[in-house]
């Protein structure tokens, strides 16, 4: 970040002072636009020549022949090297007939929806009771105006529901008990299976399902959470012209997501279940919606109020900040009786045992760092820190204890190191700092090292939770003394 912009990112840490970011942090509204400006500045002629296409931090190139593809790759790699940019080898794929790019499948057939975003519907098991069937038909019925002959397709399944004997003016609890008690195993026949599969096929294929558009039209994320599961659906409005010339907008599904709750999530309070469901949905659709306007719909009024509140405790603030890192332009309350899509998906596992792969073995984390790191951040590969401190690394080569501490201090831990070992090294590094080319232990003497210059070392003090993205305020650390802010040196 430019020096004049850094003070605007400053924040206060109790007992440590003020910090600011040296690089663009995750979650800033202008981050995607800034990144697009930088890549556009360096790659603009390759874009106009149709050698490469860019989408935020993703790039793609396509060709009809091997030689043409090799020419494009050489051109792109040469430009990246000349402009000091970097590419992620782990996230790169080459010579694919079809690939997922910007949240959609791109191949010989054009732009199609990403199949991995449809498993929430495709994997829906045959309904075992009337309540589960109601959830499924609520999902499909929401898009009935997009499905040709919908009434005919769902008729066999609707007939099953007509067999349920409900008491007049029954309460919600009575309704659920009766519907759950109406088992379908003995009544389910081949026509029901065919109707069930046809509705799933209709919902997960064109013209109902559409690929995303990035023309400024907002995406809508509708979520729902209950003790049995989380669910979210991503939709976008498309314009149609009627026979009379009138133009109307219709919402089409783009992607679906669901998971069973983990043992930890089952204990959440209702509004926190909704919090987690929304976070789950946004993270699931991140490769499509990141940096673009998003409308959030929820049937939990409390969640809407919490997202707009500043008076939250630390835990709830983390949930909110993880959500508001996306470009959310509106939060709308959707009455529960209208939230049939997400509600149906979240309850599709009711009454069924949990299985491997249904999401019940992992928990949605409130911190964006925990699951995504800085995957959407503006980052650059640099050897500056390692080169600067290489003499110290060489000095302690062969001494794993100090090598781990040094790597934690300079933010250069091996990505293949186990998370548990990383955290242990980060905790240990809290007792040390680098200054004047030496490794200092707080409340102790300097460990022998090599003098590699002090200005850069003093400019960056690396705490265990703190990488080279954050710098201690100069007013706190530099201008007020050599070791100001370091206790008992």
UniProtKB/TrEMBL annotation:
Q: Name one GO biological process term.
A: proteolysis
Tell me which residues make up the Reverse transcriptase RNase H-like domain.
Answer: 217-325
**Which residue numbers delimit the Reverse transcriptase domain?**
2-103
Q: Which SUPFAM superfamilies match?
A: DNA/RNA polymerases
Family matches, as InterPro entries: DNA/RNA_pol_sf, Rev_trsase/Diguanyl_cyclase, RT_dom, RT_RNaseH, Viral_Replic_Matur_Polypro
A Pfam short name: RT_RNaseH
The superkingdom listed in its UniProt entry is Eukaryota
CDD domains, per this entry?
A: RNase_HI_RT_Ty3 (cd09274), RT_LTR (cd01647)
What keywords are annotated for this sequence in UniProt? Answer: Aspartyl protease, Endonuclease, Hydrolase, Nuclease, Nucleotidyltransferase, Protease, RNA-directed DNA polymerase, Transferase
State any single GO MF term: endonuclease activity
Query: What's this protein's name?
Result: Reverse transcriptase domain-containing protein
- The protein's organism comes out as Hericium alpestre
């Amino acid at each position: 970040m430019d020096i004049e912009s850094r003070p605007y990112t400053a924040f206060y840490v109790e007992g440590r002072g003020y910090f600011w970011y040296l690089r663009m942090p995750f979650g800033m509204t202008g981050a995607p636009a800034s990144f697009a400006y930088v890549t556009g500045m360096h790659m603009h002629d390759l874009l106009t020549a149709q050698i490469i296409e860019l989408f935020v931090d993703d790039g793609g190139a396509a060709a009809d022949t091997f030689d043409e593809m090799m020419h494009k790759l050489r051109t792109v790699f040469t430009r990246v090297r000349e402009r000091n940019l970097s590419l992620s080898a782990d996230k790169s794929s080459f010579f694919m007939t079809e690939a997922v790019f910007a949240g959609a499948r791109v191949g010989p057939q054009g732009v199609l929806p990403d199949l991995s975003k449809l498993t929430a519907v495709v994997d829906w098991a045959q309904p075992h009771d009337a309540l589960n069937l109601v959830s499924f038909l609520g999902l499909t019925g929401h898009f009935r105006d997009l499905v040709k002959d919908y009434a005919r397709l769902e008729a066999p399944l609707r007939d099953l529901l007509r067999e349920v004997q409900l008491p007049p003016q029954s309460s919600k609890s009575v309704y659920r008990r009766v519907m759950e008690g109406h088992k379908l195993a003995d009544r389910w026949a081949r026509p029901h299976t065919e109707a069930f599969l046809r509705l799933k096929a209709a919902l997960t294929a064109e013209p109902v399902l559409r690929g995303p558009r990035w023309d400024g039209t907002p995406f809508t994320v509708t979520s729902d959470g209950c003790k049995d599961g989380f669910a979210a659906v991503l939709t976008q409005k498309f314009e149609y012209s009627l026979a009379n010339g009138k133009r109307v907008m219709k919402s089409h599904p783009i992607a679906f997501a669901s998971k069973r709750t983990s043992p930890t999530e089952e204990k959440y309070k209702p509004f926190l279940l909704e919090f987690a469901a929304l976070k789950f949905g946004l993270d699931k659709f991140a490769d499509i919606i990141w940096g673009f306007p998003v409308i959030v719909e929820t049937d939990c009024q409390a969640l809407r109020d919490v997202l707009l509140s500043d008076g939250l405790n630390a835990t709830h603030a983390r949930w909110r900040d993880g959500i508001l890192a996306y470009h959310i332009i509106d939060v709308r309350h959707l009455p529960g009786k209208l939230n049939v899509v997400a509600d149906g998906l979240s309850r599709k596992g009711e009454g069924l045992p949990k299985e491997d792969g249904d999401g019940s073995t992992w928990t949605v984390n409130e911190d964006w760092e925990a699951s995504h790191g800085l995957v959407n951040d503006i980052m650059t590969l640099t050897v500056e820190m390692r080169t600067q401190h290489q003499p110290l690394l060489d000095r302690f080569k062969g001494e794993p204890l100090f090598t781990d501490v040094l790597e934690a201090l300079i933010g250069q831990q091996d990505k293949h190191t186990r998370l548990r070992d990383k955290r242990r090294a980060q905790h240990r590094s809290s007792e040390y700092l680098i200054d004047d080319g030496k490794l200092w232990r707080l409340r102790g003497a300097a460990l022998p090292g090599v003098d590699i210059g002090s200005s850069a070392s003093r400019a960056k003090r690396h705490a265990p939770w703190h990488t080279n993205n954050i710098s201690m305020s100069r007013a706190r650390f530099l201008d007020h003394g050599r070791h100001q802010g370091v206790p008992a040196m």
